[in-house]
Amino acid sequence: MRDYWIQNKEFNYFHILVGAGPSGLAVAACLAQRAVPSLILERDNCIGPLWRKRTYNHISLHLAKQYCSLPHLPHSETTPTYIPKSEFISYLDSYAERFHLRIRFGCQVESALYDHKSGRWILKAKNGDVLEEYVGRYLVVAAGENNEKVVPDVNGLESFKGVVIHSSEYRTGFAFKGKDVLVVGSGNSGTEIAFDLFEAGARTLVVVRSPIHIVNKEIYLFGMRLMKYLPMSIVDYIIHLLCYLRFGNTAKYGLRWPDIGLMNMKFSTPTYLVVDVGTYDRIKTGEIQVLPSFISIEGNIVAFSNGQAHHFDAIIFATGYRSTIRQWLETDEGLIGDDGMAKNKYPDHWKGRNGFYCAGLNRNGLHGSSEDGLLIENDISNEYILSKEANGVNFEGKNKSV
């Protein structure tokens, strides 16, 4: 992908986007369809860095491909229903090429604020030893929630003599064959890594601290289809019944269900459901063990809240990420919450004041990224086309030595 540096006097209304993941690509492609110019600023050196650099080798998308395409480019008939990592990365690369997206790589945004006097957004971004300034009429934040890894503060962790990594650093279980491995976290990353470790020959235990909804891909897909025709409460009842028929009473194995329904939780809370890839059957047989929260670490011995203590050779923290958007966004125009995610609930989450938008920040996955792209496309393109200033100049790029 070409690295673009633009000083363009041809177009008005340059739209600046932060983040070259699926959300940023979706918005830029939608604008390109309407001939609205935009520029993506990406701190990493590639498209889709989360998928390319921070996911394990065997991962695939949890939802069927019809729910995982970006706007204006559906997946082909030959694409697997549940797309593996390598094919999805290729899709993102092809998507950016197809719509001729302008992307500035290695560009770490340091600040973004709205200048009321000029009616423009002013961004300052670090690129190596150079501080670059970008000015645009519109700003889209599409940096996502997976900016900074989270590792909890654990009593005695510094004394642990084995391997300690975050799930973003995990690629394959073969390096842990024959080892005792503790996976901390029972979301999708934690449960899938636990299964991957088991298949590679590791002795795996996983910490489950909170209630989780566990569902397989087939039931999840069925539920998504039902959402088109039935109220959410009815869909949740049906999914709950199907999950009970498939999994039985999961609480017997340390996996309690939340009080809220699965789809309700997906669309109204920051908590993710867990799509089972085979982990649960191994938990039932005892081949993967479930443990509650741990209270301390002393050397290679980890003590748990149920009174048990176990020796481990490695600990993998599948404890998620946090957004860093609030660290550089100086004015949010009523759109971004303290956690760096969309402040308002769907469907009023994507548009703020003064030409400010966000995409992919309402925890609705790739389907949400696609939907946000189309909403922003319609909102901006209409104003761009109708504006009396359409032939003016209002984007500049400047280099300033640090």
Q: How would you describe this protein?
A:
- The protein is an alpha/beta fold and 402 residues long.
- It has ten helices and 21 strands.
- The chain has helices spanning 22-33, 49-53, 85-98, 188-199, 217-226, 232-247, 262-268, 279-285, 325-328, 365-386; strands at residues 15-18, 38-41, 103-104, 108-115, 120-127, 130-136, 138-141, 148-149, 163-166, 180-184, 203-207, 214-215, 274-275, 288-291, 294-298, 301-304, 309-311, 314-317, 321-322, 356-358, 396-401.
- The strands form six sheets. Strands 3-2-1-7-20 form a five-stranded parallel sheet, with helices on one face. A five-stranded parallel sheet has the order 9-18-10-11-14. A four-stranded antiparallel sheet has the order 4-5-6-21, with no helix packed on it.
- Strand 4 and strand 5 (120-127) form a beta hairpin.
**Number of β-strand runs:** 21
Rg (C-alpha, Å): 23 Å
Spatial separation of the terminal alpha carbons: 27 Å
Largest sheet: 5 strands, parallel
Spatial order of the strands in the main sheet?
A: 3-2-1-7-20
Strand-pairing-aware structural class: alpha/beta
Helix content: 25-40%
Runs in which pLDDT lies below 50 for 5 or more consecutive residues are 1-13, 393-402
Strand content: 15-25%
Count up the helices: 10
In round numbers, the mean pLDDT is 89
